[in-house]
Each structure stands twice: as C-alpha cells, then as structure tokens.
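Look over this one:
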Amino acid sequence: MSQLLLRLYSLAMVLAQPMLRRKLARRGQREPGYLTAVEERFGHYTQPAETSSELVWVHAVSLGETRTAAMLLKALRAQYPGLRILLTHGTATGRAEGAALLQPGDVQVWQPWDSLAAVARFFNHFRPRLGLLMETEIWPNTVAAARARAMPLVLVNGRLSDKSLQQALRIALLSLPAYGALAAVYAQTEDDARRFRQLGAPVTGVFGNLKFDATPSAGQQTQGRAWRQALAQPVLMFASSREGEEADFLKQIKAATQEKVELSAMSSAANESARAFHALIVPRHPQRFDEVAALVEQHGLRVSRRSQWTGGPADSDEARQADVWLGDSLGEMALYYGLSDVALLGGSFAPLGGQNLIEAAACGCPVVMGPHTFNFAEAAELAEAEGAALRVADMPEAVQAALVLVSDLPALAAAVDSGLAFAARNRGAAAKTLDALRAYL
C-alpha cells in the first residue's frame, strides 16, 4: 500500500511541475532571485558533473535554516579543512544568504523538486557522500533515492511541532517510510525527539539548538548601541514581524502617537521631547519591505527606512520626525537588537509559531512574546522561566508591557542580564553534532 501511495505521490509531483513553474514566475516578479537557474530545480545543471563522491550535501531550505547551517559549517570546516560542500535551498532569501558561506570547491544549487527524475539527476550529477538536512525538510522521493544509493541522510537540529506531527500522521503511509529511512535524527529537544520517534525516525541524539552557537556580530551590536545612546528615548522593536501582525502593532503605535500629540498640545514644549519612544519594525521577509512601508503610511504614520539612513537615526531629520522606522536591510539583526531596548517577537502574535528569540537574547535585548511560540517551544519556555522573555496574551498587552519594562531601569537591566546568561548556558549543540557526525565523515 505504501509503495502504491509513493507512486501516486511521484505522479502528482510530475503533474505539478507546470504549476510550480508558474508559481516561480509570479514570485520572481517580486523577488528576482526566484528566476535564477530555474532548471536546477528540475535536475538540469550548468556545473560540471562530479567524477568522485567528495561533496557533503547540506540542505537549508530558507533564510533561518541557512543561518543555522552557518554554525554547523563553521564547525565542520574547522575540523575538516578542505571539506567540499554542496549547499541547496528552496527560497531566494536562503540562497542569497548561503552564497556568503561558500568556499572554493563548494557548489550551490536549488533543492531538486521531489520528482523521481529530478532527484535522480541531482544525485547522479553531484554524487554526494553524505546528506545533512537542516531542521525540518523531509521529502519522500529524495529520502528513498538516498537510501537506494546507500548515502546516509541525517536530519540535523531537528524540530517537529505537534501540528507538523499530526499532519505527518495523516499521511502515515507516505511519511513513516520517509522518516524511517533516515540514517539518524539529531533533535533539538526531548519533545522533538518524542515526536520524531512517533514517526519511526531513528533519533540518536538530543543536542539542543544550533542557533545558540551563533555569535552575533560584535561590530553591529556596538554600532547599534552607539546609535541608541545618541537618542533621547528608548526604542521598541517588532522583530521578524509577519503578515497580519504589523497592522495590530501599528494600531498601538498610532494610539500612542496620538496620545503624545495631545499631551504635547497641552504643554508649552510641544516638540520632539514629547515623544516617549521610537518604534522599529523589521519584517521577517525582505520581499515585504515595500508592503510594510505602505502599511505604515496607510495607518497615517510617517515612516523612515534604514536603507535611506547615511548614519544613525539621530543623524537624520526624517528619522527623528518619523513615527515608525523600517528595518529594510538584510544581515543586520544584531545592529537592530543593539539599537533596541526591547523586542516584540514576530510570528508569536498570530498562530504562526513564533520566530527565533535566541539571537535577541544573545544580543542582550529582552523579548516580549505572544501566545504562539510552538516553533521554538522549549527555547521560549526556558527564556520565560529565566527572565529573558515575557509572555503576554496579545499585541496591546505586548506594547504596554514593553513600555513598562523600558521605564523600569532596574527591571530592564535584569532582563538584559538574564538574556545573556540564558544564551550562554545553552550553547554547545555544534560540538555535539560534530561529534556525532564523525562516524560519517
């Protein structure tokens, strides 16, 4: 029965290819990166075919997984100088981020579409000797092809939410053979390990989250803190915001702005000093920068974009007068956390599972998170228990809690220290993962 379902799945993947091409063409109108080397997705390559099995394949589907892969690649290269990497992605942001991780001899292409023909061409062309899948990516035909070639496929930094588990169980005849064919799974938490085992996956280690081993840019943090010190008011950041959440945030900012205007009208000093805080939004997806800027203006608020600053916000008349700053740059999260006094956690105010709060903690930026953090459940619970994060019910409560925190300097300092300690205590996943991979390398 499972073989019949796999054949039906394979047929569906072939029939879906024209739809995928149309989707890529539409997506490419907003993000040109999706129009790059489209044929790679179907197993057609311009890179020379490999004549020996040297490459270690690392698959990082999107931006977050690619940043996590950077931690693993750093450890691998330190232990195995000259190791050649085959790096694949599914999104344009992941591919752009991954380009910075390449060294001479490495190869970067799109993840093959999970049809039998595309996957076969991928393996035949690059002949990887080991595959490392970051966090969540399991594709039935890819896993089956790797097993048929006796190529070990390891799920690294594995996480599996209850929602994803239930989805996989609904197609158990397809998903259980795929998970069971993996060579090993290194789970982030015991809860993740338990869920993977329910799918028949060979969990051989629970190593924590590789994201704790990231070292945020010290230069960016220093720059951000210098910019913050030049400001008279604290900075409230909405970090990695997602579609549907920004509108709620902007309603709260507009209400606070109107209140400040009314207060300043009653004062003889109706000027910049009447502003109680600065608001900063950093969207999770860069293709939405223009959309979020337009959304700010639709709420009757003035926006200033980071991409238009020549120095810090204190050096720009436009930034000083704006109601909202837009963090529309890539690779500067450490700078934004350094600039901010407190961060609201994107993805946690809608049922999206929350974004990564670990980088904020490592930068000493306290976090206020909403009720939805199932993507990083254990990290969120630990951060809350240790005082590095505060959980609230909704956006109005989040903004209010953030403003209370920044007005209480001893409490703010304690939250900063708790975040730094929380991040430091949970490092070490990279070393444990590297240790486990020695058997394959």
Observations:
- The two ends are 36 Å apart (CA to CA).
